[in-house]
Amino acid sequence: MSKKAVIGLGSLSRRDDAIGIVVLDSLLALQKTKGIDYLNFGSASIDLISRLMDYDKALLIDAIDAGQACGKLIISDLEKIEYDLNLPAVSSHELNLKDLFELSKRLGVKTKIYLAGIQIKDVSFGEGLSRELKKKKKEIVRKIALFINNELRK
């Protein structure tokens, strides 16, 4: 049996950057899928790489700034997102997504890593999501839950 994880990333003190943690909490309240570990990882750091090595598949839920409409959800494998969207290197995390992908490749991490990237609007210091992102949260959670059920569990 393969090991799988859903990992929420983000900073609760940076408004929309908290979306990965907020969605993770919502998923836990909605459904905790048997056989999948749900982890609140906060800000991505080098520790995330070593944790990913424990799993065959992992879904990272994180805020992105890819110039899309606020609340736009993009789910794909990490490599495809990094190079197709050419996401900026700026991140509120110790490691941005591109660094995470490159480092995991260099270290030989075999984990199939997916990203549920959610377009954000406001990463100023403060608590609570922007009004625009709050409105989209329920639909984002529903789409990610479907991905977990249809793809991650395979």
Mean pLDDT: 85
| Largest sheet report | 5 strands, mixed
| Strand residues, percent | 15-25%
**The CATH homology group name:** HybD-like
How many alpha or pi helices?
Answer: 5
- Strands side by side in the biggest sheet: 2-1-3-5-4
Structure, explained:
- The chain is of the alpha/beta class and 154 residues long.
- It has a single domain, classed as HybD-like (Rossmann fold).
- Helix content is 38%, strand content 22%.
- The chain has a five-stranded mixed beta sheet with strand order 2-1-3-5-4.
- Helix 1 packs across helix 5.
- It is globular and about 40 Å long.
- About 6% of the residues have low confidence.
Structural topology:
Blueprint: E1 4-9, H1 19-30, E2 36-42, H2 46-52, E3 57-64, E4 73-77, H3 78-85, H4 97-106, E5 112-119, H5 131-152
Parallel strand pairs: 1-2, 1-3, 3-5
Antiparallel strand pairs: 4-5
Helix pairs in contact: 1-5
Short structural summary:
With 154 residues, the chain is of the alpha/beta class. It has helices at residues 19-30, 46-52, 78-85, 97-106, 131-152; strands at residues 4-9, 36-42, 57-64, 73-77, 112-119. It has one domain (4-152): Rossmann fold (3-Layer(aba) Sandwich), CATH 3.40.50.1450.
